[in-house]
Write a structure and sequence with these properties.
single chain, 5-stranded antiparallel sheet
Length: 289
């Protein structure tokens, strides 16, 4: 599932290509992917130029000259592919990133005045695009539930700790996955940051010491930034802003490394379940409560 670093990779790629470009038409192949009446799309999107591409948590925000914004959530299998003066593709890693489009995963195409196209592909159809008045974004039902951003700008250690201590009885992994505490962290980065901080996923937030919080804060920020530098994560292949395969899986310390030795102590990494998700830990470094 695309997480914060992958969505940030999409943002970086689009923000180098889209601003100033004008939407000429929109083709929709799956109505639920972009559920906005045709009349509204015609008035608020067609003929509009892109002002800025931003991100909030895992949501992309494309501000238009009509003072409306497109919100794009990639959910499980969404991806964005730009085909124009060059090709830029990011999001869920599969062949659609590099193959001829549209294909059977294409849900929406934005055709731009200069002849370039932006494809929204989504194999499993959980992703969505919404249209919201830019000035009303702070009140938008999805965005308003999100907690603070972990990076860009970096959350301070104090705010980080305070955010998690609002839910003192939550277990560490579940808390990290909660988008309303801190936005954008998913399964991969939760496992990686807990390992970095030597914390067990089932440990309650109240049991964390100041040193634990400092280690978790540093561990999370480090892994998110490293992943963005490397162009996001991937199960198979991943194409980042410059068409290079993302290499996060090659530097993951625990995620999908079950059966392999811990980089710190050599103990075999194990896979268990926590917060309903496959969870990877070192049983020596991350002692169960
Ligand atoms: Zn270990």
């Amino acid at each position: 599932m695309p997480e914060l670093p992958e969505v940030e990779t999409v943002r970086l790629g689009l923000s180098r290509r889209l601003p100033g470009k004008v939407i000429r038409s929109i083709d929709i192949f799956h109505g639920k992917a972009f559920d906005v009446p045709e009349e509204a799309r015609k008035v608020l999107c067609v003929g509009a130029s892109v002002v800025e591409v931003r991100r909030r948590g895992k949501v992309l925000i494309v501000d238009l000259s009509t003072e409306y914004s497109l919100l794009i959530h990639l959910k499980m299998t969404g991806q964005v592919v730009f085909v124009g003066e060059d090709r830029f593709a990011a999001g869920h890693p599969n062949d659609s990133l590099v193959s001829k489009l549209p294909d059977n995963s294409t849900r929406v195409i934005f055709k731009l005045e200069d002849g370039s196209h932006v494809y929204f592909n989504d194999q499993r159809k959980f992703g969505w695009i919404r249209l919201v008045k830019t000035s009303e974004l702070p009140e938008e039902e999805f965005l308003k539930r999100l907690g603070p951003e972990p990076i860009n700008p970096d959350i301070s250690l104090k705010d980080f700790k305070n955010a998690y201590l609002k839910r003192p009885n939550m277990k560490a992994k579940a808390a990290l996955l909660s988008q309303d505490i801190v936005a954008g962290v998913g399964n991969i980065y939760a496992d990686e940051s807990l390992w970095a901080a030597k914390l067990h996923p089932e440990q309650k937030m109240t049991s964390l010491t100041d040193v634990d919080f400092a280690n978790l804060h540093k561990g999370l920020l480090d892994v998110l930034k490293l992943s963005i530098e490397r162009g996001g994560s991937s199960n198979h292949t991943y194409v980042n802003a410059d068409g290079v395969k993302g290499s996060f899986s090659s530097f993951a310390k625990v995620f999908r490394r079950e059966g392999q030795p811990c980089f710190t102590c050599g103990t075999e990494i194990i896979k268990t379940r926590s917060a309903g998700r496959g969870t990877h830990t070192c049983p020596t470094c991350q002692v169960a409560p």
